[in-house]
């Protein structure tokens, strides 16, 4: 039996795509509204398996083909036709039709974070596993940028909420985004589209498919997307936040027999963009120093312009291939998915976000990933059915990064000292450092990081249906995860290599013993402390007193101290995790129109590694002394081994595993003209891996426990033929149950910043048929709302100085619209607008880089609009 796409024409034509139920009503309405003679392009899309009714929607959220109403999982489905009608070009815009999903793109094109039900991790560090897993045609994309290509032939996007370890071999503690593309067809057909919009946006995409032989079919698709930047770098007269990306993919589908199918695909994608604008919300006390060195900045946050000393560059190459084999033997189906992928990410960026040449960063990352999934699924007529699978994951990450001090970096930092210009020359003379060495133009740090991650898992589910309509499900996943990493960094800043407490102590001992300071080493310090404990105590006390040790005022400039390389004799550079997770669920068909279910599930995500210059040993391996003093530090393995470097801190090397738990009950109803879905849930992640910017670096640690309680409701209403309304809302009560050591202090009991209580997505679609001509006009309006919420829980520098007050807030009200005239001959012409009312909001904020008291942030995109021409054949 030939395998063909399982999403129905009715869904494709309805333009409905939110929520996990209610689509069959819309499908029925659209089926009734069809002309007696289908358009040629519809016929090409209309060859579906005879075993499925044309008015149901088939998904693979449970790794089996089931209808949405039969799937007792909280899942949202967005069809490819909905993506076309709503003019959703990439995954960033998917949140406008899926209220439980939030997507953000921040520092650069590759820094994209997916958040489901308030849980998600930043993708600014490749050592951190995502809490939300992204799969494309069953292949795990280990970094979110790997799933951002503008695919030209999407069949649907499924968003599964909550831990999914029993269905996906690679654990995802918060949820899964499963992107499903159309397989090659045995009927010739295709699609071609050209769109043009404001900001000189130009998009071309298309696909073609057809038979090579009776058993072999092919498809080729690709897209090109370019646009001028939304914003302007005023002093450079250059755009920023542009689009310049393309991708191409080829597929082969071989079906030599009715029970064997082999699908091979290979793809290549390229991004070469200038991203992203960060503007100043609050100009702190460092702003006069920026102006003093000839720099500029703007506090007109939504003025759509900025000042930088260079145009940021972000280049991404993402490519790979996969082979999926499906073999049916009686009621048993065996599936194998083998994939290999490579990802290259490069960016060069001004990270002080002013036109002054203070500091810049270059990062070059390469990721090589091999995955293998094998699963067996049954389709027995009896009460028992099962799915059993195994998953293997092997990945290697190489990263080289550099910070560079700009031409005016020394002058800028010197203006921030109490004594102003000339200060560093005096400090260099007093500490015996080379003249003009502090913040000298040139390399500030150079870094080399590598991580190898190997994991395997066994997973499966068993369904028991003792009577028709009542199904008990039990599932499990056992995962074994191993990470081996090596981190090496050289810090070139002379001042950062001096501990100011220890320097004072050495100077005090040198004066007391009439010995040159360069001859005072650990042995001499120990001897003096033993021989003259009172004198040593007095020197140490003075070293910690800002009134006596004026060097302490320079500590704010030591943000790039020496780095303790790993592995070393104390830290082996390894994490080893294993965990058994499980699911229990009961589902019952109360009637043909009503289904209910209740479930309990656990999830797991392995340890993450801070692959950055901010990586520090665990507390206990090293215990810093006051002021990060090594001389005053208590005994610890690193100190005892002689490994301690000046100004060594602790606590941001590794974050331990996440353990998820979710209780959920759901109700699904399907009646004539209306369908709805309701899910109530209580979801908790213990040890949530928090990764937050602190002003000069990133802190990685575990929150004790983060939880969210709430509900999701969606409905589809068809009041008359051709008119479809959808409504979906999510309520989230997200709380840090325990987070004692966040960058802004104890957050235990506080709401989680950036997670709005209410998310709403609504749409109206009207299809007007022009008699028996087969022509029709499709008009669609979408509305997205996020209730007002604190953007985050405060900033480590700005808000901490204010007692964690004056936290910035955000609210979203977004209206999108489109209108398309679809002709019977396959041609379509239309127009679209996104953010119709030009509503603007703050995406996020952060402490100004090395600018205490300054707040920077990312603004949302302005209104965009354009027209398109499409031809389906």
UniProtKB/TrEMBL annotation:
<dbReference type="InterPro" id="IPR012910">
    <property type="entry name" value="Plug_dom"/>
</dbReference>
<dbReference type="InterPro" id="IPR036942">
    <property type="entry name" value="Beta-barrel_TonB_sf"/>
</dbReference>
<feature type="domain" description="TonB-dependent receptor-like beta-barrel">
    <location>
        <begin position="289"/>
        <end position="836"/>
    </location>
</feature>
<keyword id="KW-0732">Signal</keyword>
<keyword id="KW-0813">Transport</keyword>
<comment type="similarity">
    <text>Belongs to the TonB-dependent receptor family.</text>
</comment>
<dbReference type="GO" id="GO:0006826">
    <property type="term" value="P:iron ion transport"/>
</dbReference>
<keyword id="KW-0408">Iron</keyword>
<dbReference type="Pfam" id="PF00593">
    <property type="entry name" value="TonB_dep_Rec_b-barrel"/>
</dbReference>
<keyword id="KW-0675">Receptor</keyword>
<keyword id="KW-0406">Ion transport</keyword>
<keyword id="KW-0812">Transmembrane</keyword>
<dbReference type="GO" id="GO:0009279">
    <property type="term" value="C:cell outer membrane"/>
</dbReference>
<dbReference type="InterPro" id="IPR039426">
    <property type="entry name" value="TonB-dep_rcpt-like"/>
</dbReference>
<keyword id="KW-1134">Transmembrane beta strand</keyword>
<keyword id="KW-0410">Iron transport</keyword>
<keyword id="KW-0998">Cell outer membrane</keyword>
<feature type="domain" description="TonB-dependent receptor plug">
    <location>
        <begin position="68"/>
        <end position="176"/>
    </location>
</feature>
<keyword id="KW-0472">Membrane</keyword>
<protein>
    <submittedName>
        <fullName>TonB-dependent receptor</fullName>
    </submittedName>
</protein>
<feature type="signal peptide">
    <location>
        <begin position="1"/>
        <end position="29"/>
    </location>
</feature>
<dbReference type="InterPro" id="IPR000531">
    <property type="entry name" value="Beta-barrel_TonB"/>
</dbReference>
<dbReference type="Pfam" id="PF07715">
    <property type="entry name" value="Plug"/>
</dbReference>
<keyword id="KW-0798">TonB box</keyword>
